[in-house]
Amino acid sequence: MSDLSSSRKRYNSWSDKIFDTCNIIFMLVLVVVTLYPFINMFALSFNNANDSIRGGIYLWPREWTWENYAYIFNESSIYHATLISAFRTILGTIISVFCTAMLAYTVSRQEFVLRKFVTIAFVFTMYFSGGLIPTYLLIRELDLINSFWVYIFPGIIGVFNMIVVRSFIEGLPDGILESAKIDGAGEFTTFVRIVLPLTVPALATISLFVAVGQWNSWFDVFLYNSSRLDLSTLQYELMKILSTSNTAANSMTAADQFAAGQSGQTMVTPTSIRATMTIIASLPIIMVYPFLQKYFVKGMTVGGVKG
Q: Which residues form the signal peptide (predicted)?
């Protein structure tokens, strides 16, 4: 009984209370710093563009409007581009995660004599790239220009993702894989039926990485598929809209902008368009993340647990 009371007394000491208070304050500040930019973008996206020029928009729109979203969604190409982005994200994530997991399983096997060489060869690409022009020439020689598959094949293997999955596989009990081989399972059967189900946290983690990269990518569209409107993605179309709004804003003088605001004429600005684009582009990923959060945390901490 005395031990229990002494432990409670230690917990209720001033040093513990000060630590808890500082910890709570630090976490609250971190939450505010993390959420404020997104909340500010949300407020700007729903605020009247003419009014936004005055400034002073922080956490809540001063003059609510849907004009910024209407301006973007009035572009007929947006809807088809969204479907292309969704399709490349889903297909690219599935293929990339499966191929990355196969490579990770291969280099995690002690009996694979070239595992160190293959690992070093892939890690080397993280520090040195061939450059933009050689990459473009390679893509052209592979006949991937003006093709949907240029979104999938060049980034099919992520080295960092491979390292994450390999670390997870190396932490699995050896007895599970050995028992599968004793039962007559081949390497591919062991990989599909044993390894993949056990590495779901790691696979969910790299799936989020790959999906975000695929969804946000637009530069590959600009380089390889800019002449194919039917293969344009949402991010590329949003980039073109922003470029158009920047050009229009630069062509208007301050007096023109003031006159438009005074007359009540609806006007979009690069700031309002950029904020609206941020919300549109971020919303799908934000909706997916809660379903992967528990796997994401477990997958990222596996290396620390193993160590």
A: none
